[in-house]
Amino acid sequence: MHWGLSVSLGGELADPNAVASVAAAAENAGWDGVFVWDHLWHRDGAPFADPFVTLSAIALATSLVRIGPLVTPLPRRRPAVVAQQASSVDRLSGGRLTLGLGLGHDRYGEYSDVGDDLGDDAKARANRLDDGLEFLLPALAGEPVPAAGNRRTTVACTQRPRCPIWVAGSAGKSAGPRRAARHGLEGVAIVGGGEWLPEHAETVRAESSAHGLDQLEVVLVGGTHDDPGELAAAGATWLIPELLPGTTIAEATAIASAGPPD
Fold first, then answer.
1. Which of 2, 19, 49, 204 is a plausible cystine mate for 9, CB 3.0–4.6 Å?
2. CA dist., res. 144 & res. 223, Å (int)
3. How many helices (DSSP H) and strands (DSSP E) are in the chain?
4. Buried-state track 96-112, b at ≥16 Cβ within 10 A, e below 16
5. Which CATH architecture group holds 2-258?
6. Across-strand partners of 99?
């Protein structure tokens, strides 16, 4: 089992230098990964820091932990720009980036309030995510991209053939594992706020195996749990608690410095 922290980037945590210090404390305390949210703002309307700028600061402050956005809503971003940002962060970190991608939602107006009409159309966002993945997979490998006139759009990642990609999914649903299998991705990240049960990991593992993807990271983000060992036995490979909006730098540093649960 690997342990990570997922850091919201609003309030006091909207300071990339401060979050980098939290990440350094987490690395020193034995965490395996430090990830960041990708939002424009959250329910309280407080603006968030840019995730890739913050990841660059984290990359320079650490040397061991996996880092990445968890998750970037690809439908509201340009895939060519995400490819450039991701490959640059992967190089800056010495090959430690894991790229989390998902549909996003319009719960806080992050689509509709900036003039994007995809907010109320989950199917259109899903199609946009699939199109974006088709662009990113060759781009991150430094290969010609068919959707860009067969040109190379960015430098290749340090990791070969590219950085790992985790796609977001929902507990008990098959869309995430099916998308991971369809595109040959490395993991499925299930984000939740309730209690994690073994069947949540078992469902992801079974769905991915049914679609021909046996080697897969099963990532449980947020939520609570009584027995990490039971979740690991059910197939979970990462547990990633969240530092939610409103967390202060002092609180985040204390949590990071305490290290992962035994």
1. 49
2. 40
3. 8, 10
4. bbbbbbbbbebebebbe
5. Alpha-Beta Barrel (3.20)
6. 165
Please report which helix (H) or strand (E) contains residue 33, including its range: strand 33-36
- 45 vs 79: CA distance, rounded Å: 26
* Residue predicted with more confidence, 193 or 100: 100
36, 32, 31: which is closest to 20 by C-alpha? 36
Q: How far apart are CA 36 and CA 198, in angstroms?
A: 25
Specify the pLDDT at position 41.
87
Give the model's pLDDT for residue 152. 93
The count of C-alpha atoms lying within 13 angstroms of the C-alpha of 113, restricted to the half-sphere facing its C-beta, is 11
Chain-centroid distance of CA 131 in Å reads: 18
12 vs 43, 65, 108, 130, 221, CA distance in Å? 16, 22, 20, 34, 22
Sequence ranges of the domains in the chain: 2-258
pLDDT one-digit tens code per residue, 205-232: 888 888 888 789 999 999 888 899 999 9
